[in-house]
Amino acid sequence: MHTSLDLLADAADAQRSYDSYDPGYISSSCPSSPETRPTRSVVASYPRHLRPRKAAHKPLKGSRVTVKKSKPELNARRKELLDRAYGIKSLENSPVNEQQLFVLRTVYNEITMYPTEPWLALMAVVLHRSLRQVKNWFSNCRQKNGSGEAMCSDTLTDVGERVRLRPSAIELCQWSDAFFEEVIMILNFRTARQLHWERTRASNQCT
Predict the structure, then answer these.
(1) Which residue, 50, 72, 94, 187, has most beta carbons within 10 Å?
(2) Residue 114: Cβ-neighbour burial (10 angstroms; 0-12, 13-18, 19+)
(3) Could you tell me the residue range of the domain that residue 195 belongs to?
């Protein structure tokens, strides 16, 4: 499977455009043209309670988006994710499946080798693995591949918190919990869809 951080970010932006669409708006530049609704991203196929939460992203000079979110709201969301992550029960020695592994590797290779605890909790919830398992996976990868100190750089999130990201991720945008959540949700959905398509094709070829 192939993935691109830019494509995932574009999909997250497309979802926000869809969510913010105003049905009463008609373009003044094309008054006679029929009203066109933005293309719906893959996340819209999720059940509503599983879709990423809406975030008020605004353009940032030199980057893709930024997020403004009140500290109490952010802390409440983080507590919710941590509580859900700690409540997940899974066998400690059970290996990750193909879908979970692809999502984890994409985060490790393209976003960060050092995800924050809220980001770890989010991945645990989305992938349905215990928080300890997700932490250990990243720790084991760093030990296996080296600490990667030179491969990640410090940067600030939308609320001024310091995170360590891959240079390509830093160039993409100013990151936030909400934007990371959207990227993970889209990546997980696309991975599941791709694996399902590959298995269906393989099954049809065998019959």
Answers:
(1) 187
(2) middle
(3) 5-206
For 110-141, what is each residue's pLDDT tens digit? 999 999 999 999 999 999 999 999 999 999 99
pTM value is 0.70
Distance CA 181, CA 188 (A): 11
Low-confidence ranges of the chain (pLDDT < 70): 1-69, 147-150, 207
Please tell me the predicted confidence (pLDDT) of residue 1. Answer: 57
Instruction: Please give the angle made by the CA atoms of 46, 48 and 54, to the nearest 5 degrees.
Output: 100
Distance CA 50, CA 127 (A): 12
Cα separation, 82 vs 78, in Å, equals 6
Rg value, the chain, Cα: 19
3-state secondary structure of 70: coil
Q: Is residue 51 within 8 Å of residue 185, measured between CB atoms?
A: yes
- Strands 63-67, 57-60: pairing kind: antiparallel
At 199, give phi and psi (nearest 5°). -70, -40
Per DSSP, the three-state class of 13 is helix
Q: How many domains does the chain have?
A: 1
Which position has the token pair 């669409």? 21
